[in-house]
TrEMBL record:
This is DegT/DnrJ/EryC1/StrS family aminotransferase. SUPFAM superfamilies: PLP-dependent transferases. Pfam families: DegT_DnrJ_EryC1. Belongs to the DegT/DnrJ/EryC1 family. GO terms for molecular function: transaminase activity. Gene3D superfamilies: Aspartate Aminotransferase, domain 1, Type I PLP-dependent aspartate aminotransferase-like (Major domain). The lineage of its organism: Bacteria, Pseudomonadati, Pseudomonadota, Alphaproteobacteria, Hyphomicrobiales. Keywords: Aminotransferase, Pyridoxal phosphate, Transferase.
Length: 400
């Protein structure tokens, strides 16, 4: 089949002349890497989420690495998390020499099932790394309560959750306001707010924040900016092993514009998600994602569960033939080759729901410039998938 009409990508970042102008300003300033723009972006992001500290880094994976190291995760320790996530979640645990311990996701949703955490705890458990998957807040209140009960720090993988909100003591708060110990954000182009690549750590803990700032710049005692501005000669020292995890000023300048746009992006996505929900509700067997009463997602991804009998790949191919890009459900880390062997992870209980979510769900196109017509085009194709693929007999030997 030849695709006709417009192509609908699964996601598309939105940037224009404003970001271009911001980068131009930085290029001409002569200060390219971590400097005044990073500092300004950090304070604006901290104010946006309501955190005392925000520290910018090169991406969310490096943010996760620093966060886990700050709460004391090291060689031989265990960190409880989900397999149903992007691989970087678990990779960051292994960078610390620790072992990811995978628990399953909740029934009906795509986030960690808090009731499974306590049984996965051992004397080696040094942190819980929860994920706000696809921007949907996980049950942070329950997870933080478990962390308190067992004296285990909680780190949030908030890679997808810039601008997502959670109800806390009757008030809506942004993800990143310190309720757990540290939250880590991503600014990859697949997320709502992008700087090309980039990450941010938010925390209420000044000691953690000081560690992030030391470690992100080679463990150097004096930041470049301070040395540069000093009227006296300064010799720096290197008290600890550090990394080069800096964000550049070019990225931060883009991030400041994007942060300004974020509430508008989210409002538009909420409108489109509501359109999807209304339409998808009319197709038997399809399950639209649901926000718990205490959560407001930024709709980073709109992930729909297909009927059990519908082959995921066939459905995705039908949509692709009509110029519509989709992605399958979030990966399961424990089934990747990089996670083969007992030394790479431990599974606590069954991961059946995680596997089912990967194999039964698909992510539909959603981006702020998408039109209502685009939504209808996607939904029409989905309806055809359910109707035509459902009635097709299985090919000989084809396993479903
Ligand atoms: C995107 C993503 C990451 C990695 O973010 P980078 O900024 O690309 O390093 C980590 N965790 C989750 C859940 C993600 O979606």
């Amino acid at each position: 089949m030849t695709p006709t009409g417009t192509q609908i990508p699964v996601a598309r970042p939105f940037l224009d002349e404003q970001e271009t102008e911001a980068v131009r300003r930085v290029v001409l300033s002569g200060w390219l890497t971590q400097g005044p723009e990073v500092e300004a972006f950090e304070s604006e992001f901290a104010a946006f989420v309501g955190a005392r500290h925000a520290c910018a880094v090169s991406n969310c994976t490096t943010a996760l690495h620093l966060a886990l190291q700050a709460v004391g995760v090291g060689a031989g320790d265990e960190v409880i998390t989900v397999s149903h996530s992007f691989i970087a979640t678990a990779n960051a645990i292994r960078y610390c020499g620790a072992l990811p311990v995978f628990v399953d996701i909740e029934a009906g949703g795509f986030n960690i099932d808090p009731t499974l955490i306590a049984d996965a705890i051992t004397p080696r458990t040094k942190a819980i790394l929860c994920v706000h998957q696809m921007g949907m807040p996980c049950d942070l209140a329950s997870i933080v309560a478990i962390g308190k009960r067992f004296s285990i720090p909680v780190v949030e993988d908030a890679a997808c959750a810039s601008g997502s909100e959670i109800l806390w003591d009757g008030q809506w708060e942004k993800i990143g306001k310190p309720r757990a110990d540290i939250a880590c954000f991503s600014f990859h182009p697949r997320k709502l707010l992008t700087t090309g690549d980039g990450g941010m750590l938010t925390t209420g803990n000044s000691e953690y924040d000081a560690k992030f700032r030391l470690w992100r710049q080679h463990g150097m005692s004096v930041p470049d900016t301070v040395r540069h501005g000093s009227k006296r000669v300064i010799f720096e020292s290197y008290p600890e092993l550090g990394y080069n995890y800096r964000m550049t000023d070019l990225q931060a300048a883009i991030g400041r514009i994007q942060l300004h746009r974020l509430p508008g992006f989210i409002a538009e996505r909420r409108r489109l998600a509501e359109r999807y929900r209304q339409q998808i509700g009319q197709i038997a067997g399809l399950e639209a994602p649901v926000e718990p009463s205490w959560a407001r997602t930024n709709w980073q991804s709109y992930c729909v569960r297909l009927p059990q009998w519908l082959d995921q790949r066939d459905a995705m191919q039908l949509l692709l033939d009509r110029g519509i890009s989709t992605r399958r459900g979030v990966m399961t880390i424990h089934r990747e080759k990089a996670y083969a062997g007992d030394h790479t992870h431990r599974v606590a209980g069954s991961l059946a729901r995680s596997v089912a979510a990967q194999e039964n769900a698909i992510i539909l196109p959603l981006f702020s410039q998408m039109t209502d017509t685009d939504v209808l085009t996607v939904v029409d194709a989905l309806q055809d998938a359910v109707e035509t693929l459902g009635s097709r007999p299985l090919k000989a030997g084809q396993a479903h």
